[in-house]
Amino acid sequence: MSLLQVALLASAAAIAALLGPFLIEWADTPKRHVLGVADALAAGMMLGIAYPLMSAALARASVGAALGAAAGIVATYLVHWRLDIGGAPGSSVHSLAASAVHAAPEGLALGAAAAFDPRLAIVLAATLAVHNVSEGAVLAAHLPRGAGGRARISLLVVLSNAPQVVIAVLALALAGWAPALVAPLLGAAFGALTYLCLAELLPDSYELTGRTSIALVVTVAAGVVALASGRVW
Amino acid sequence: MRAFIQQPVVQVFLYALLTAVATSFGALPFVFIRNLSQRAAAYANAIAAGLMLGASFGLIVEGTQHDGAATFLGAIAGVAFILLTQKLLGDHGHETEFLGARGAGARRMLLVIVIMTVHSFAEGAAVGVSFGGGAALATAITLAIAVHNIPEGLAISAVMRPQGASVLSCAWWSFVSSVPQPLAAVPAFLFVSRVSAALPYGLGFAAGAMVFMVLVELLPEAYEQAMARGIAVVTSLTMVAMLLVQRFL
């Protein structure tokens, strides 16, 4: 897969987030339960994406995959801690920065998957697109009223996914330059995605709705995505 | 004697019995303290969640090598089993007396023991089914469940000890809560070893039940008692460590 192709795939997944604010606009004032389920859906899909990445990484180089995963977890934790992401809801800038930090590991996953198997990258991009719709809806609902009108909010939501495109291209370029890095990169994507799911999406969803609904949605979504990506890959 | 111990069924029983005994280790901290801090309980839950997620990952990898769709269906059955268990337990809450305590305290003690006991069946089935996937998988799953059982024993003891129960009583009831593990492990193993087509369903069942338990019990409780960032980093690093251990077993 070429750098241009991965850039296009990542851009398509990022632009899909545009649908999120429209869904929120359409639903008027979404109920807490709906937002909680949207968060849980995004979390389940993220765990489902993480599964084939780590399976591929472990099959290629176990220790490299584990070291990459640990590095992905620690690096994302440090960024979270430094920017104080995961605390109380903040300003528009804070919410958008959190979304941009969240998008970077998704780009890493896409770039590393493209280096491993283009079919896996296509499944990941399709899953990320659906995942981004859920995330776009939740982000638009959380943005304060002062953030602007519908068009401005939609643009901000899409732009907050820009790191997904940049990091996907960089990861593929890095993997092409040093193929030994594919397993650690896949592992790092797994670690960062798992951490994000556990630090952001799940705690938010537990605050919004009941734990049984969350567990059900996450388990089924993760299972469907893992099964689909396993079949293609 | 040696030949008896080396029989597969006896080995499955002994491995699962070991996981049950590990549950009673959860009472040990209460030799020194009367109450456990909320932060310590939260991180114990986070470690248990990471171990169980890592163990489930191994079960799913093994299951999908046989049949991905069957593994998925098994996982859905595992989720349904835990949901049904929760529903049945929810319908039987009465004011009661237990170990000298009365009212809400006694009910809390009894409820935590009953919940742990019922969901132990799924964990026992996981140990039994994992033997169908080979010795390395069985050792990894047994290890994960044994370590996971310690915080469960801790949870039981943390409810019982402040109500006046002795440390020995806490250890005993923690062990009793896991007795279904050796009892469920043997039939689960016999079933998958005789009906090989059932193996991916069984592996999926165990993985689905464990992931669902992590999401419905361990993580929400951990998030209530400590910062999400800390819980996330401990859970995910433990999960990665468990994946690495499984690769080298």
How does this model look, in words?
- The complex is a heterodimer of chains A (233) and B (249).
- Chain A is mostly helical and 233 residues long.
- In chain A, 85% of the residues lie in helices and 0% in strands.
- Chain A is built from ten helices and no strands.
- Chain B is mainly alpha-helical and 249 residues long.
- Chain B has helices spanning 2-5, 8-24, 38-66, 68-90, 103-130, 135-160, 167-177, 180-194, 199-225, 228-248, and strands spanning 97-98, 101-102.
- Chain B has a two-stranded antiparallel sheet.
- The chains are: A mainly alpha (233), B mainly alpha (249).
The average pLDDT value of chain A, as a whole number, equals 83
**How many β-strands of chain B, per DSSP?**
2
Our count of helices of chain B gives 10
Helix/strand-derived category of chain B reads: mainly alpha
Beta percentage of chain A is: under 5%
**Oligomer class:** heterodimer
Fraction of helical residues of chain B: over 70%
General shape of chain B: globular
Strand order of the largest sheet of chain B: 1-2
